[in-house]
Design goal:
- The protein is α/β, with parallel strands linked by helices.
- It has one domain: Spore Coat Polysaccharide Biosynthesis Protein SpsA, Chain A.
- Helices cover about 30% and strands about 25% of the residues.
- It contains ten helices and 13 strands.
- Helix 5 crosses helix 8.
- The longest helix is centred in the last third of the chain and has 14 residues.
- The radius of gyration is 19 Å and the shape is globular.
- The N and C termini lie far apart (about 40 Å).
- The relative contact order is 0.17.
- It binds uridine 5'-triphosphate.
- Uridine 5'-triphosphate binds next to helix 5.
């Protein structure tokens, strides 16, 4: 059973400055909904109700978003606008939210390690809100739901992957693996490389922002040294697990928008606007 999802949300979001000077990147909206709310909804769709969020001192808007807003509710009570808060209020009432602050900017691996007190000693999901995934077919399940099914079969860490154009590969962690189930597009990972140059990339199978991790990852992360850029990489910790055959890569069904980049953010906005008949 995967009961908890960790949302690392302590990044600086420098690609979106000046918007992210005072507003957390994870709170930027696609139409009217913040990225992190899409993320929490995806976790709920995978039957996860315990949301563990890694923030920092400049990200208080996140806690406020997943809490009651009594004054606002009072102001719009009895009007049609009440409807606009229905969805988020239902989420706040149904799910549990816990928070921990990341104190040093040491990268995604360090953010995940910071989440340990909220997770404890159990397998958990990790969701990066700036990778917004949509389903291709209406009756497909969410990416996290798909990954939990794979976890239930293999009982080890799972990473979601996507084939990306080779000229984009330097932005990703890349896997090498043996295909073990072609009906499910799953690979047993044998090697991983963080942000290779196109020339050095062993494959074009890139890790995206969804993981199921077993709790031994915390001890591995503790022993993982920062890389050249001073960041502790989750890819390096996963590489240790993969050397024991304990990492599965899964080519998820769906489409991803990289909302951490301006281009991906605009594409996602256009997609949702078209879908809702706004443009
Ligand atoms: P990014 O690699 O996109 O970094 O983080 P960033 O700092 O948010 O954005 P840019 O590159 O400066 O524009 C991917 C995810 O990991 C989280 C971010 O909040 C985002 O959800 N993260 C990153 C942390 O929680 N802590 C970190 O130290 C770094």
């Amino acid at each position: 059973m995967i009961k908890k999802c960790l949302f690392p949300a302590a990044g600086l979001g420098t690609r979106f400055l000046p918007a992210t000077k005072a507003v957390p990147k994870e709170m930027l909206p696609i139409l009217t909904k913040p990225l992190l709310q899409y993320a929490v909804e995806e976790a709920l769709s995978a039957n996860i109700t315990n949301m563990a969020i890694v923030t920092n001192k400049d990200k208080r808007a996140i806690e406020d978003h997943f809490d009651q807003a009594l004054e606002l509710e009072l102001q719009i009570r009895g009007t049609q606008k009440e409807e606009l808060l229905k969805e988020i209020n239902a989420i706040c009432n149904y799910a549990t939210f816990t928070y921990v602050r990341q104190k040093q900017m040491l990268g995604l691996g360090y953010a995940i390690l910071t989440g340990k007190p909220l997770i404890g000693n159990e397998p958990f999901a990790v969701h990066l809100a700036d990778d917004l995934c949509i389903l291709k077919e209406e009756d497909d399940n969410s990416v996290l739901y798909q990954m939990i099914k794979i976890y239930n079969k293999y009982q080890c860490s799972i990473v979601a992957i996507e084939e990306v154009p080779i000229n984009q590969i330097h932005k990703y962690g890349v896997i090498v693996g043996d295909l073990i189930d072609n009906t499910n597009d799953t690979y047993r990972v044998t090697n991983m490389v963080e942000k290779p140059t196109p020339k050095n990339a062993p494959t074009n199978m890139a890790i995206i922002g969804r993981y199921i991790l077993t709790p031994d990852i915390f001890n591995i992360l503790k022993q993982t040294k920062p890389d050249k850029s001073g960041e502790i990489q989750i890819t390096d910790a996963l590489l240790t697990q993969s050397k024991q055959g304990h990492v599965i890569a899964y080519k998820f069904k769906g489409k991803r928008f990289d909302c951490g980049s301006i281009q991906g953010y605009v594409k996602a906005t256009n997609y949702f606007a078209k879908q809702q008949g706004i443009i």
